[in-house]
DNA sequence: CAGATTTCTTGTCATAAGACAAGTACACAT
DNA sequence: ATGTGTACTTGTCTTATGACAAGAAATCTG
């Protein structure tokens, strides 16, 4: 029974994590090392993965569920800064890599299954696996592009289009997240978003 | 005379570049190597440093002048995505690191003095200097934060406040860039921005 | 199941910003 | 210096969205 459980864990772990860390400069053995550095963690709906004022000590890869990060604006209202869906890396790079307290909260919107890796373990791999920094650079690059695009979208696309873009690209969010969180993410009030929905 | 010119170049080069690459894991000799990999390049007002459809082969550090990057939105209008002022790294990470054609244009708004480094030279240093990837990670982290903040600002701050924030944080831009470019950067029309200016 | 709490919808009114157009000021080139 | 174009301002009107408030619907909890 122990064996069977172990086997199951490994398979899921592998299927989820391998494609994420795949990189031409990372070989099989190294990939294995990286994957093995992750531990399974479950979060329940409402749990905080990271809280304002604390310093991140790990990041995680989301197997299933939905997570959002939010910060407070100048009025003290909470503003959704990002949503994370299955297969994504959930990380507060600023806090984790600069070792400073975060200004953001990261919270599970549904029950979640995650694979977590500690900063210290990550650092060891980052320094010992030659291709790992390049993998990380690529990942950062993609994320940077994402936020740049997002700024352009908020600045130029009409609200309805922004909603439709999100609906097309991440329908899980529209389905699972409460309207008010989607509204702050899109930069509109919840009543406006409700009216926009009605039109569709 | 040749010596004197060489000396001058080195001093300026060093004073500009050293603080940018300073990092606890990079020693004196390595720092020297990195700095020496840069070459001085001048651009004139209006010159393109990178053009839509081309793939970036270098990045540069701006000694003096003002640069903007812009993309086209769904209507074909050009939208300022970023401004770069003296002391900043001017780079299209997506194109440079993923080796793909860029969707952005990078253009000098004034005459500029820059220190340029080729991708190939950068790669050699990135792989041979142990602390360099960590320096890069920190830099990326800061940039990521910048774009995230920008998205929140556009989504939540009223236009006038956004203008005032920019004025406070990068007054050179307000002074030197044409109003229409500032307007697209802030996500307003140029006539609205003109009226906002009048109020102040 | 009942009450409480949260989420979402809808109404009315106010307001900021956009669209469009005309005019002025300034810069650049011949 | 004269003309051409670009940059900026200003006016009028329209429209999208916000603010506020009330009510309906759904969800949670004892």
If interface size is counted as residues with C-beta under 8 Å from the partner's C-beta, which chains form the largest one? A-B, 38 and 38 residues
Helix percentage of chain A: 40-55%
SSE string of chain A, helices as H and strands as E:
HHEEEEEEHEEHHHHHH
Trace the largest sheet of chain A across and list its strands: 1-8-3-6
Q: Identify the overall geometry of chain A.
A: globular
How is the biggest beta sheet of chain A arranged?
A: 4 strands, antiparallel
Beta-strand portion of chain A reads 15-25%
Overall number of strands of chain A: 8
What is the terminal separation of chain A in angstroms? 51 Å
Multimeric status of the protein = homodimer
Broad structural category of chain A: alpha+beta
Overall mean pLDDT of chain A stands at 92
Continuous helix count of chain A: 9
Write a concise synopsis of the structure shown.
Chain A has 200 residues and is an alpha+beta fold. Chain A contains nine helices and eight strands.
Structure overview:
Chain A has 200 residues and is an alpha+beta fold. Chain A has helices spanning 2-21, 28-36, 93-98, 119-128, 132-156, 159-169, 171-176, 179-186, 190-199; strands spanning 39-43, 48-50, 58-64, 67-72, 78-84, 89-90, 105-108, 112-118. In chain A, the strands form two sheets. In chain A, strands 1-8-3-6 form a four-stranded antiparallel beta sheet. In chain A, β4 and β5 form a beta hairpin. In chain A, α1 (2-21) crosses α2 (28-36) and α8 (179-186) packs across α9 (190-199). The N and C termini of chain A lie far apart (51 Å). At the A-B interface, α3 and α5 of A face α3 and α5 of B. Chain A binds a DNA duplex (30 and 30 nucleotides) through α9.
